[in-house]
Automatic annotation (TrEMBL):
Catalyzes the thiamine diphosphate-dependent decarboxylation of 2-oxoglutarate and the subsequent addition of the resulting succinic semialdehyde-thiamine pyrophosphate anion to isochorismate to yield 2-succinyl-5-enolpyruvyl-6-hydroxy-3-cyclohexene-1-carboxylate (SEPHCHC). Pfam families: TPP_enzyme_C (PF02775), TPP_enzyme_M_2 (PF16582), TPP_enzyme_N (PF02776). Its EC number is 2.2.1.9. Keywords: Magnesium, Manganese, Menaquinone biosynthesis, Metal-binding, Thiamine pyrophosphate, Transferase. Belongs to the TPP enzyme family. MenD subfamily. It comes from the Bacteria. Residues 13-122 form the Thiamine pyrophosphate enzyme N-terminal TPP-binding domain. CDD domains: TPP_PYR_MenD (cd07037), TPP_SHCHC_synthase (cd02009). Homodimer. SUPFAM superfamilies: Thiamin diphosphate-binding fold (THDP-binding). This is 2-succinyl-5-enolpyruvyl-6-hydroxy-3-cyclohexene-1-carboxylate synthase. Gene3D superfamilies: 3.40.50.970, TPP-binding domain. Residues 209-393 form the Menaquinone biosynthesis protein MenD middle domain.
Length: 573
């Protein structure tokens, strides 16, 4: 490679460095050689190598999500770049600042049949916030400064609100080996200063809303950590309950309070039965909640619905929000604590807490939590998390079981997931990304057998980097969630090949192939014996938990019917 191009790329690298990028995830290829060598030979970057681009991009997503920092992905030309697409879609919806760098043939080799060449400019369409192509370099001070400024700005675009993925395409001519001895060009350096929006004047409707005794806070997943102690203090001051998603990390914050409602999903199924339980005001912080029933209720809600969001996005598929408060969430909470007056004691919060405790009693007395079951396994993992640990929750049934059973726990832990688009793509790689950001603590993953199979190659990077992730694979030989949906009523001969899709995986052999510790669980006694041995020891291991899909479906349906019947009696009385 010419010294001109090397200097141009070194200026680009400096732009990433000065904008705060540390982590770079590479996938092998010829055309990406210049960027790969320059990143690898710069000690200011931590470089990871993953041979599969789809796995690499989800690893980067998990790393960025956990560290709350931009992460760069670099790949070669052709279909390699297309494999980033699922993670880019998730990053956009989850507002994760991924920096996608694709490498390409120069313009004279495009549209003329050159190998491994396709149209890569604007490849990802509207799924990235910004897309650009770098020129083939010229060595002039202005072009070197341009190269530096563009990568600096690329990161700034990714981190600006709303955060999200950005893309740059680098065309390279052969030869592709840069001269690493070339000095970094002299550049005019840049700095970034980030600010937040603070609530200074409360709208009249919001002030009136805070005077209502029948209010509810909804806390969804957020890109920044919410100050839960102050949110709880605000809710206590108002006497309002908080309905919180598991991934919002309120119930794993170590904070305990009567305002935290653990089982809002099960309770919201019955709100239409009693006028006393209809809220007048709802204030949501963060994303929409996972709970289908909570979101269905919002679609018919006739009171005031406020969303606090400084991303510029109005994420409200209920179409019932009548006020968007463009504020940093913690700034809003802080200002609200100063603005609102403590309401007189009332029966509103007491009603909710009594019903929540009733649901908890029912759950803990049924075979769903007393016998060997997927839900029991999930509950045991959550209740035995080490302090300051991290747990990634896969989509499909694991996140739903978590929302069902998670109650406020005394230890401080963090839960992660990919709920932007809610797919099963790259779960394993995302969890390894989480682990890479915090290797010193205990890290775990709860995942189903199909999701595990779908992202199996993520194990290669986890093993290579010695990432201490405990992987709990709930193996019911198929897609358990479909059994809970209307498709579950189809005849077995139709349901199994189309929706159940059993794979009959030999997970023990897979674990051996990747040199992972392996444990198989088939009974409650085996589970009780193993659990305390592995929860405090960070290590790469696979724990396969064998269950029966039909039996698990029957247990979940039975508990739903039991709660429905008992709560109906309580609410109507």
């Amino acid at each position: 490679m010419s010294d001109t191009m090397t200097k141009f790329l070194k200026a680009s690298i400096e732009g990433f460095k000065d904008s705060g990028v540390v982590d770079v995830v590479l996938s092998p290829g010829s055309r990406s050689t210049p960027l790969a060598l320059l990143f690898e030979n710069d000690e200011d970057f931590k470089v990871y190598m993953d041979v599969d681009e789809r796995s690499a991009s989800f690893f980067a997503l998990g790393l960025s999500k956990t560290k709350k920092k931009p992460v760069v992905c670099v790949c070669t030309s052709g279909t390699a770049a297309a494999n980033y697409f699922p993670a880019i879609c998730e990053a956009k919806e989850s507002q994760i600042p991924l920096i996608i760098l694709t490498t390409d043939r120069p313009q004279e080799l495009r549209h003329v049949g050159a190998p491994q060449t396709m149209e890569q400019v604007h490849l990802y369409g509207d799924k990235v916030k910004f897309s650009m192509e770098f020129p083939v370099a010229e060595e002039t001070p202005r072009m070197l400064q341009y190269s530096y400024a563009q990568t600096f700005q690329l990161v700034s675009r990714a981190e600006s609100i709303p955060m999200g993925p950005v893309h740059a395409n680098f065309p390279f001519r052969e030869p592709l080996i840069p001269n690493l001895e070339v000095e970094t060009p002299v550049l005019k350096r840049k700095q970034r200063v980030k600010g937040i929006k603070v609530v200074q004047e409360f709208p009249k409707t919001l002030k009136e809303g805070f005077n209502e005794e029948k209010g509810i806070f909804l806390l969804g997943e957020t890109t920044e950590l919410v100050d839960v102690e102050k949110l709880v203090a605000l809710a206590e001051k108002l006497g309002w309950p908080i309905f919180s998603d598991s991934l919002a990390n309120l119930k794993t914050s170590g904070v305990k309070s009567s305002v935290i409602i653990n089982h809002h999903d099960l309770l919201m199924k019955h709100l239409e039965l009693k006028e006393d339980l209809q809220p007048k005001v709802i204030i949501r912080l963060g994303r929409a909640l996972l709970s289908k029933d909570t979101n269905l209720f919002l679609q018919n809600f006739e009171g005031h619905y406020y969303i606090v969001d400084d991303t510029g996005l109005i994420q409200d598929y209920s179409h019932q929000c009548d006020l968007v408060i463009e504020s940093n969430k913690n700034a809003f909470i802080e200002a609200s604590l100063c603005q609102v007056e403590e309401l007189a004691p009332n029966n509103w919060l007491k009603q909710w807490k009594e019903l929540d405790e009733k649901v908890s009693q029912i759950l803990h007395q049924t075979n769903l939590l007393t016998d060997y079951s997927e839900t029991r396994i999930t509950a045991d993992i959550l209740n035995n998390l080490p302090n300051k640990s991290q747990l990634f929750i896969s989509n499909s049934m694991p996140i739903r079981d978590t929302d069902t059973v998670l109650e406020a726990i005394p230890q401080t832990s963090r839960l992660f997931g990919t709920r932007g688009i809610n797919g099963i793509d790259g779960i394993l790689s995302s969890a390894f990304g989480m682990t890479a950001a915090s290797k010193e603590c205990w890290n775990g993953l709860i995942i189903g057998d199909l999701s595990f199979f779908h992202s199996l190659n993520g194990l290669a990077l986890g093993k290579k980097e010695s990432l201490p992730l405990t992987i709990f694979v709930i193996n019911n030989d198929g897609g358990g969630i479909f059994s809970m949906l209307p498709q579950g009523q189809l005849p077995k001969e139709t349901f199994e090949p189309l929706f159940g899709t059993p794979q009959s995986l030999n997970i023990e052999a897979l674990a051996q192939g990747f040199s992972c510790d392996y444990h198989k669980i088939q009974s409650l006694s085996e589970w009780k014996c193993l659990l305390p041995k592995i929860m405090g020891e960070p290590k790469l291991r696979i724990v396969e938990i064998l269950t029966n899909r039909e039996e698990e479906t029957a247990k979940r349906k039975e508990i739903n019917q039991l709660i429905s019947s008992k709560l109906t009696v309580d609410i109507l009385c």
